[in-house]
Amino acid sequence: MRVSILGTGRMGTGLVRVLGEMIPDLQWGSRSLAKVRQKIRETEGISGLIQPVTNETALEAEVIFPTFWYRDLLPWAAEHKSQLSGKILVDIANPFTSDFTAFTLDWGTSAAEELQRLLPETKVVGAFKNTFFSVLEQPLHQGLTSDVFVTSDHEEAKACVMALLQGIPFRVLDGGGLQNNRTLERMTLFEREVALRYGSYPYVSFRLFGMGTD
Length: 214
What we know:
- The protein is of the alpha/beta class.
- The protein contains 9 helices and 8 strands.
- It has an 8-stranded mixed sheet, sandwiched between helices.
């Protein structure tokens, strides 16, 4: 199964670092092949086995991780609706305002649900909503891993993504359906506010107690 990550920003780079050790021949997409090749050479911890590809080639994968801001994600998805049909699209976006103080969506929906409405023939899976880029760079904190909640209205797609993520330095948990992103996305803004108050931002994530020792 081909897996691709689109975007060379902080989240894209962090996901490549984490997933590159677990997924053979992971594709890393960018509008510029030269840029992604340079990122592979310059970024510590990124496997040399990562395949640099254009964004168009990355869309040919069966599982796709776009790492765009929410404001850019929906226009991108609409533009590539036919190419995304039948694929698994892993949504990591949060619908924040540009100053990270509020949401751009009403309470009764989420970024993941809006993406699924736009792409009815695509299987949208939510993941890494609560994981800030610094945690991807240093996943272990005092010997503990944080949690990644995986959500979808498509059980087989959710199980597929959870299987792909097994072995990463996070605890991967079934987060239920896409509507749970209404809570997860707001938790992200809450954890950011608290981390800023206590001086740990952007190194912040969540871990639930009582879930075993893994």
